[in-house]
User: Fold this.
Amino acid sequence: MRVERLADNKVKIFISYDDLEKRGIDREEMWQNGRKVQELFWDMMEYAYAEVGFEVAGPISIEAFTMPTEGIIVIVTQVPSLPLGQYEEEDGDDQEETFEVQVNMTSVVVVFFDFEDVIRAAAAIGDHADIKSTLYANDQKYYLYIHEDEMEEEWFESVWTILLEYGAHSNVTKAFLDDYGKVIVDGYPFLTILRYFS
Assistant:
């Protein structure tokens, strides 16, 4: 497990699939919010507090980025307190803090630093060039957003390995790309690239 403080109200935590296996948690179970997953989350929060002083107090937002071969990146953000319903009081006892947690499962984004690398990746993928994705341009870089349903395919791990030969995993979200990026090709960008640049 590794932790990095991104801002006063935000931390990034990486947990490998080996770490999950040692805790008896498989990849699919990670999204089911069971007892073991809840225990893992609070262990992560204790670790984040010990390592970088990040303390959970009030509502938080959680973004989880799955990486096919390495593990899972969890970004925890402290969000402004809600004006109402933030605390509960029962039978005159002290007020007890409650948490609002929003979990957003997002797909993988790969960044390419040159369009030639995008062309090379398309050629290298070959038979799986029909992977459903969206190619964006932003700040002289190219971002490939891969749709979630593609990540469930048996062949995706080999595709992911090829993509990382020509690009790098990015923590940029689809929402950011939609707001600030320019869509180059939506749907099957590698097929389009091979059609014009093969």
Confidence is low (pLDDT under 50) at residues 82-106.
